[in-house]
Amino acid sequence: MDIFEGIKTRRSIRKFSSEEVSAEAIANILEAGRWAPSGKNNQPWKFMVLAKEKKDALAEFTKYSFLVKGANKLILIFLDKDISYHYQKDLLAIGAAIENMLLCIHSLGLGACWMGEIRNQGSDIIKALGLGENLEFEAALALGKPSLISGQGRRKDLKDLIIDG
Ligand SMILES: Cc1cc2nc3c(=O)[nH]c(=O)nc-3n(C[C@H](O)[C@H](O)[C@H](O)COP(=O)(O)O)c2cc1C
Asked: What is residue 136's predicted lDDT score, i.e. its pLDDT?
């Protein structure tokens, strides 16, 4: 898939079939995240992949529980505070890693939705998963084979985004 076409045709997917996402696909998706840029190349991210009961147990932490339950896998993305050098810049890098993964997911014929609301319950999630205090939960990707692809997407006109220089 041409990179520009991939960027423009990727959509947030919120309905999935029951089809299994293969281990090979997961490995490719995480590899795409791993190759994101980061400040000082510190690579401040950590990833966790959940399926089945472990995945479904996180449904109670979000009002988007249907996404958690409907997805075949959930990819959790964390900031590793032990290797953070600048909080905001590290979060930007994590955003880049997430977008890399979303584009890879799309190119594989799979679909995902970036879950942001669930981050509000981040410290409860860290506790429920028994993870260390060095990790800060940033986002989840609900992942699966799309059963419904919503619309063409809408974006502001480029002219409304440009500040005259
Ligand atoms: C930081 C961030 C948080 C988001 N959180 C949610 C969320 O909690 N639930 C949801 O359904 N979609 C969420 N989304 C997806 C957006 O709604 C979606 O990207 C936007 O409407 C544009 O649609 P598109 O991705 O199909 O182009 C989030 C996206 C981002 C980047």
From this structure: 98
Specify if 143 maps to a domain. Answer: yes
- CATH code of the domain in which 133 resides: 3.40.109.10
Pick the residue whose CA is nearest to atom 17 on ligand 1: 12
pTM: 0.98
- What is the radius of gyration, based on Cα positions, of the chain? 16
Name the residue of 15, 114, 118, 121 whose CB sits within 8 Å of the most ligand 1 atoms, as the mutation to test its pocket.
114
User: To which H or E segment does residue 38 belong?
Assistant: none
86 is a domain residue: yes
* Contacting residues for 42 by C-beta, under 8 A, at least 6 apart: 83, 84, 85, 90, 93
Is 165 a member of any domain? no
Mean pLDDT of the chain: 97
- In which residue ranges of the chain is pLDDT below 70? none
Ligand 1 in reach of 106 Cβ (< 6 A): no
**What range does the domain containing 16 cover?**
3-160
Residue located nearest, by CA, to atom 20 of ligand 1: 12
What 8-state DSSP symbol labels residue 12? B
Number of domains the chain contains: 1
* CA-nearest residue, atom 28 of ligand 1: 114
Q: Which atom of ligand 1 is nearest to the CA of 98?
A: 31
